[in-house]
Amino acid sequence: MSTRLLLIFGFVLSLVTLMVACQKIMPSAPAEDELLDGPVEGLTYEQSQRFLLGDVAFNDEIFTPEKGLGPVFVATSCGSCHAGDGKGHPFTTLTRFGQVDETGNKFLHQGGPQLQNRAIPGYKPEQIPAGATFSKFTPPANTGLGFFELVSDADILAMADPNDEDNDGISGVPNYSHLAAYVVPPANAIPKDGKYIHRFGKKGAAYNLLHQTVNAYNQDIGITSSYDPIDVYTHLAIDPEISTQTVNDVVFYLQTLKAPIQRNQNDPAVQRGSLIFNQINCAGCHKPTLKTGPSPVVALSNTEFHPYTDLLLHDMGPGLDDGYTEGSAKTFEWRTPPLWGLGLSINSQGGQYHLLHDGRAKSIEEAIQMHGGEATASRDKFAKLSANDKNDLIKFLKSL
Ligand SMILES: [Ca+2]
Ligand SMILES: [Ca+2]
Ligand SMILES: [Ca+2]
């Protein structure tokens, strides 16, 4: 590392150097593959700088009423819910409300679908309106999301099987929604009836990382931007409370956070577990390998990656029906969550797993047992595995 970087990053690098030094001194410091919050490899100087600026805005910028917080809000920074960029705790759930049919969410005039349950002095926090259904979401890990943004619509559609033509009980459909006004789709996007394939969020209702970030600033923290100047409380357009550059830097940070690294691949139990994962068709939805298109970030460009998701919505049965719709996602539909980083998420969740959209599953095994709908056959095959096979499968999942 060096001199060149040292000159460039100055203070920031001295901090990093200090941390590296500490890692050497403390034997308990986590190894690279235990860490979630670093950048992908090979960023240029300019890219590293944007990553660092985004990192600071995401993790360290705490909003106060003077900086535009609220007036109604859920939390005061991105990092307070997405600590260390890992999977979050049910203490930091978001609540969204709406209605159970697909005619659209008729409560949007009440400051958007999200419940802003806190307010700055002098204002009243929101309450869930009478007649609305609501859902709770725990924060997902933010790692490796830049790879998802670069999967082509054609590749996503190739995994969809709306009429289950291969008869494996699994269909899978994209979340088709209308684009936010400021979102510019890539040239190879494949819209249908004026709607575009959305892929981020637990019901796949966010188009890209810009869309997700602008919504988070506005809906979670009450911070308006040039992209979305509408104040959630008054519904009036107001001056941006954060610069366009900062929003873009946070998006770049999310795009270039590295993907979790698999551990213990050479353990024979992990290798057997991986085979079982395919045999009982977990891989029917949790697709091991996807590929990206071109990107100015070398590490993200035209490469295969291993997230264990198909980015599609699946009917997960009545047990996981939350009575809430988003975009074209129905109440019982969820986007397959990536499984990379699963083994590390217990740490970011405080030593106890809180899996599935609202954190209700307290172990990996429980999460599997709660699968229904299109995943019923897979779940039942899991139940019939021998104790050894189950252990191998869980070991594999924990290696991710
Ligand atoms: Ca505000
Ligand atoms: Ca609201
Ligand atoms: Ca199928």
- The residue ranges in which pLDDT falls below 50 over 5 or more consecutive positions are 1-27
> CATH top level of one domain?
Mainly Alpha
What count of helical segments does DSSP give?
Answer: 12
Radius of gyration: 21 Å
CATH topology category name of one domain: Cytochrome Bc1 Complex, Chain D, domain 2
Task: State the helicity in percent bands.
Answer: 25-40%
**Looking at this structure, what is the CATH superfamily of one domain?**
Cytochrome c-like domain
Task: Give the strand order of the largest sheet, numbering strands 1, 2, ... along the chain.
Answer: 1-3
Strand content: 5-15%
Mean pLDDT value: 90
Largest pleated sheet: 2 strands, antiparallel
State the end-to-end CA separation: 29 Å
Number of strands: 10
Q: What is the correct CATH architecture of one domain?
A: Orthogonal Bundle
Bound molecules: calcium ion
User: Tell me, what's the shape?
Assistant: globular
H/E element sequence: HHHEEEEHHEEHHHEEEEHHHH
Class from helix and strand fractions: mainly alpha
Describe this structure in words.
The chain has 400 residues and is mainly alpha-helical. Among the domains are: 1-30, no CATH class; 268-399, Cytochrome c-like domain (Cytochrome Bc1 Complex, Chain D, domain 2), CATH 1.10.760.10. 30% of the residues lie in helices and 8% in strands. The protein has twelve helices and ten strands. The strands form five sheets. Strands 1-3 form a two-stranded antiparallel ribbon. The chain has a two-stranded antiparallel ribbon with strand order 2-4. α1 crosses α2 (11-25), α3 crosses α7 and α8 (268-279) crosses α12. The longest helix has 15 residues, at 11-25. The relative contact order is 0.15. The site of one calcium ion (CA) has 7 residues, from loops. The site of one calcium ion has 8 residues, from loops.
